[in-house]
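Appendix B, record 7
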Amino acid sequence: MAIENIIGLILYIAPGFLTREILRAFYPVRERTDFIQTTWCIIYGIIVSSAVRGIDSTLLNNLLKSNGKGFPSFPFIMVLFLAGILLGLFLVLINWLRFRVSQKWPKFKKLSPDPQSIWAKINQPSNEEWALVFLDDGAIYLGWIKYYSYDPNADSQDFLLSHAKRVDETLNIKYEIQGIGVYLNTKNIKRIEFLKNESTVIQ
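Structure tokens (predicted):
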């Protein structure tokens, strides 16, 4: 394969890779096959490359030399990478708007992006329920899941239970957590029950 073809392939994939990684950083999903990942990188890359070349030829009077032969010009390469980043941020903004619209107007709920995970779904900002957490060691906590991690490729997830109270088997308060909350991991949990109001269980 000629060096020009290799460089051209990289210029298609690299900006698309940046776009995909930025989008995944904000909205992680479970990793798919290498073929699907590469395909999305190429799709995003083609969009970026076509847009930059179109702008260069119509608005910039070929200032970036995007259609030149041989090794691509440095300004063209830099703009490609910048465009890949901007496309990723644009897609993040679109998803954010979809979340906001679906939360503000319930009839548009289907517009909300699918996080593809039960753990991510139940921790959406729209969930205002309290969590009753049962640990493997018998401890029971009632609180609000304020922060949580979500790595779709990990077997367990971390989260912080704020406004937490330690309760007994009959759900009487044993003591209240005075600090920021209880740091927990899903691997140590038997189950979590979600409640509309903490007063429904506290005696």
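Remarks on this record: DSSP finds four helices and six strands in the chain. The helical segments are 3-26, 34-58, 74-104, 118-122.
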